[in-house]
Write a structure and sequence with these properties.
The structure is a homodimer.
Chain A lengths: L1 H9 L11 H14 L8 E2 L1 H8 L3 H13 L3 E4 L3 E4 L4 H24 L6 H16 L3 H18 L5 H16 L6 H19 L3 H13 L1 H11 L7
Antiparallel strand pairs in A: 1-3, 2-3
Helix pairs in contact in A: 1-2, 1-8, 2-4, 3-4, 5-7, 5-8, 5-10, 6-7, 6-9, 9-10
Chain A binds a DNA duplex through α4.
Chain lengths: ~240, ~240
DNA sequence: ACACCAAAACTTGTATACAAGTCAACATCG
DNA sequence: CGATGTTGACTTGTATACAAGTTTTGGTGT
């Protein structure tokens, strides 16, 4: 799940494995609720309220709020209130830009000199994606898509790069939750993935770049559509 | 200065201009001291101590600590202590990777369709860099270099992209403070800048990419050298 | 009924007190 | 003299109380 991965991004503890502590639980819970639109953009959310319902004090809640605000998922208005951050054309464009930049460099690295020990996992992922499409299981496909792009970072020898990709991906995914994903769309994404893997394993960097740009660009018309149909969830 | 720019990165307030509040002052102060190596890697730093010397309570200090830890400048070891984060080969490699990825996409955008209103500022910056070299003013050149790369982001229409570049640049700059910058090195950097601007203004994207990769790669031998001469500041 | 003002009920920001864990110094025993 | 156990002085994590500001609500006067 996205939250558990992203948690490492803002982790301040050592690399020793530790059970989820107070702020982490609150962070994960709120993160999931925001990402899944259980908490809609603009929803007011109070430190005191979350503290009560979570059983913790306001202090851990504040820490979780800060981390979520740094991810542009919460908007803290001092002395006023804290709300789930509305969508923003500018923030989304930035997130798209950053993700594309990093992932393009990732696949360049993969095409040039990849970690071949990840090859099997990539092929396994493709097979699992095929199965998810056969079952019309959109949720499973979404998770597999997430893992697929993480595997690409691992193959590039830059697993940490996925933290940034995930953070910016979340920004866009939250928006796209408003659009139903059809099996046809899944098929398109899967075809991109297979063609991308083919190009990467044969070292065709320019072709891989073209495929990835088109792959990431598939979201643009969806974003535009949602902007017109759900303008109420956007800022201003 | 880097700190004031970076502050916006972690800003949680609205976009209204506000005077520096408690945590921001502490953050800026610590940020500068860490970046300039006034606080060396491994230095123990206590919330209580900083709170006393700054006149604030522990709470604002904690917030500043968290932000600095998220930038990989502090390492908070729960219940043990907080130290200025030692250098890490892995973190530096990641920072180099991320910065290169973003800046390469930036210059591709500039070469493709730039904001021409920034052209004059770029040329002014180049002239100022020339003057700094003539005066052998390394500090001034460093600041101009910082501004130059920010201008590139503006020219690409993605000023926010510079926040990430700056954050990762700081990670490397802190290390390179250990190496004295010669006027010869400045001249090399300046030559890169001029050739980069030439390529960008004539829309030669591939050439610009090559120049930028070489430009960013100039730090690699310096990093390696410092790793051997100052291994004590590295983790493990 | 409507405009306006005041007070109460919110919000986040800060300070202080306490809890839990780690580490180091030191006394004590073999 | 050395190893060891215990106590104390640190550290960060958490809870609570208070301060400052905003928004809403209700009453009052016109």
């Amino acid at each position: 799940m996205p939250a558990t991965e992203l948690k490492d991004d803002a982790m301040t503890t050592t690399d020793t494995v530790e059970q989820a502590t107070g702020p982490d639980q609150i962070f994960d819970d709120l993160y999931n609720r925001i990402i899944t639109l259980d908490l809609l953009p603009g929803t007011k959310i109070s430190e005191t309220e979350v503290a009560r319902s979570s059983g913790y004090s306001r202090q851990p809640v504040r820490e979780a709020f800060t981390r979520l605000a740094n991810l542009n998922l919460l908007l803290i208005r001092p002395k006023r209130a804290t709300i789930v951050r509305p969508f923003s054309r500018d923030l989304i464009a930035n997130a798209r830009f950053i993700r594309a930049a990093i992932e393009l460099e990732v696949i360049r690295q993969v095409a040039d000199a990849r970690d071949t020990s990840v090859d099997a996992k990539l092929k396994n992922s493709l097979k699992a994606q095929r199965d998810a499409i056969a079952d019309a299981d959109t949720a499973a496909f979404h998770d597999l898509d997430y893992d697929f792009h993480r595997l690409l970072c691992q193959s590039a020898g830059r697993p940490a790069a996925f933290d940034l990709i995930a953070a910016n991906k979340a920004q866009v995914d939250r928006l796209c939750m408003l659009s139903l994903t059809s099996t046809a769309a899944m098929q398109d994404l899967y075809d991109d993935h297979t063609r991308l893997v083919d190009a990467l394993l044969s070292g065709k960097a320019p072709e891989a770049e073209t495929i990835l740009r088109k792959h990431l660009g598939r979201l643009d018309p969806i974003i535009d559509a949602i902007y017109t149909t759900h303008s109420g969830y956007f800022e201003e």
